[in-house]
Amino acid sequence: MLHTMTFLKRRDDFVAVASFGRKSVGRGFILQFRRRPGDSLPGIRIGFTATKKIGGAVVRNRAKRRLRALAREILPSHAPDGHDFVLIARSTTPGLPYAILREDLLQALDRLPSPTPNTP
Question: Which domains are assigned to the chain?
């Protein structure tokens, strides 16, 4: 089943995922996720972060482009409905083969806990 995917843009949404969610650490990224409260709209929402620790603007933009491509390919068909996700780039994100990033994201989604409601 394909889910609609929209993007997180407001800082409050990123903070909510970090504060009330869980995380899975992969070789090329960190995946933070949380189930939205029950009265939210269906679909999944995704945000991307790349800090200056991983490099200059060119490196950060490359890392985010790779994470966006990964999310567009995998999340609509594999992510559970009603969740928010944040993909955080690591220093290895720009250089890792795409197949490894893909495998890590699929494994992280398989390890998601069973759905439980979170606080706002």
Answer: 5-110 (3.30.230.10)
